[in-house]
Write a structure and sequence with these properties.
- By secondary structure, the chain is α/β, with parallel strands linked by helices.
- The chain has a single domain, classed as Rossmann fold.
- The protein contains seven helices and six strands, in the order E-H-H-E-H-H-E-H-E-H-E-E-H.
- A six-stranded mixed β-sheet has the order 3-2-1-4-6-5, with helices on both faces.
- It is globular, with a radius of gyration of 15 Å.
- The termini are close together.
Length: 144
Amino acid sequence: MKLFLDTSVLLAACGSAKGSSRAVFQYAPAQGWELMASPWVVGEVTRNLVKFPTVATSDWLPLRRQLVIVDDVVSLNRVLVFPVSKDRPVLLTALASAQVLLTLDREDFMGVLGGQFYGLPILLPYEFLESRRAAGWLGGSKRR
């Protein structure tokens, strides 16, 4: 499964070893999840890491190695009504490259969080993990 991680998820994973954002990284190898981000997202992470304790930068390096970096997508051949221009590249790139977009950005993604954008589920990391657990995909032998 291809998961696109936005800046908020990556920063949360760097900032805490115990949260659901970090758990996505921990489960990914065994579950066969491909964790994706784009140069736009990686740039935002790099700019914002200075706001975190030094250990977050140290944690970013191994997390970054788990990411597949996909090209940014900035236009769509469909109608797009999404008011937050800074997050359009995240939404469009996720739509073009992944099966799920994970975000913690409740403010900017409020209108679509927990829903779908042209069939792309947009979830909090916790919601994604819980849905996988409820379906029997975590903690068992199933892999997808």
